[in-house]
Amino acid sequence: MAIRHNAIKNSLDVGKASEWNDDHVINFADRIEICMDFLNEALVDHFDLTQETSSTPSAITLVGSVAAARLNATGGVGNLSAIRMMMAGAAGNVTNIDQLPIMNMAVELGGLTADNKTHQFGLTDSADTPFAVNDDGAFFRVDNNVLYAVTSDGATETTTDLGAPNQFGVYKIVCNSGSVDFYVDDMAVIAAHHTSNLPVADVTMKFSTAQRAGGSNTMSVQGFALSVLREQ
């Protein structure tokens, strides 16, 4: 999108209407920032919890003396604990890959049972059920105690094995034009670079964990930040 600015004038110079354009755009900041640290927020003010089936509701609590959104999947095998960022007070997506979103997260993974698909966090389509086949998005997943970087177009996934996950980690997802980069802890080093099966749906920030045969799994989200490009 071309942006035309008004002419620069010296003091006391007269401005003319012809020097302005119908498509003149006020110069807002190029990127929109969303930051959540869970210190002064109620979980239900910003997150939809209707995808949860766990008998233990997600809640903000102190975890190791740090305020965090605590997810705890209990109540039987297959139960989910999941929170997804809302749009205008209801479940919905907040951005898309064309806005080149960048998401940073500080997440503690609990349980880590050696089962299939126990933890998932990052950018996914709000409507997709957590851990469903080929969730549309760009996210991290723990599967059988292995951390994966995942991109999916809703039909096919590209995954990269990142090894055994740490209990606590700092994660970053950078959506570029035609690729997605994933970072773990050492932000200077790209852990995975995906150019295939990039998300095609709008996405939101979603965190999910599940109870499997090995027992309950937990996740504590200490905070996250999302930056999206305003100008396209």
Q: How would you describe this structure to a colleague?
A:
The protein is 2% helix and 44% strand. It has 232 residues and is mainly β. The chain has a single domain (29-229), classed as Jelly Rolls (Sandwich). Strands 1, 3, 4, 7, 12, 13, 14 and 16 form an 8-stranded antiparallel sheet that branches. Strands 2, 5, 6, 8, 9, 10, 11 and 15 form an 8-stranded antiparallel sheet that branches. A hairpin with a 2-residue loop joins strand 9 and strand 10 (146-152).
Major sheet attributes: 8 strands, antiparallel
Low-confidence stretches: 1-5
Gyration radius from CA atoms, angstroms? 20 Å
Q: What would you call the quaternary organization? A: single chain
State the domain count: 1
Strand content: 35-45%
Shape: globular
Q: How many distinct helices?
A: 1
CATH class identity: Mainly Beta
Shape-level CATH architecture: Sandwich
Residue share in helix: under 10%
- Secondary structural class: mainly beta
Distance between termini?
6 Å
CATH topology: Jelly Rolls
- Number of E strands: 16
Order of helices and strands: EHEEEEEEEEEEEEEEE
Could you tell me the mean pLDDT?
A: 88
Describe the protein's topology:
Blueprint: E1 31-36, H1 43-46, E2 47-48, E3 59-63, E4 66-72, E5 80-87, E6 90-91, E7 102-110, E8 119-124, E9 137-143, E10 146-152, E11 157-161, E12 168-176, E13 179-184, E14 192-194, E15 204-210, E16 218-229
Antiparallel strand pairs: 1-16, 2-5, 3-4, 4-16, 5-6, 5-15, 7-12, 7-16, 8-9, 8-15, 9-10, 10-11, 12-13, 13-14
Task: Offer a quick outline of the entry.
The protein has 232 residues and is mainly beta.
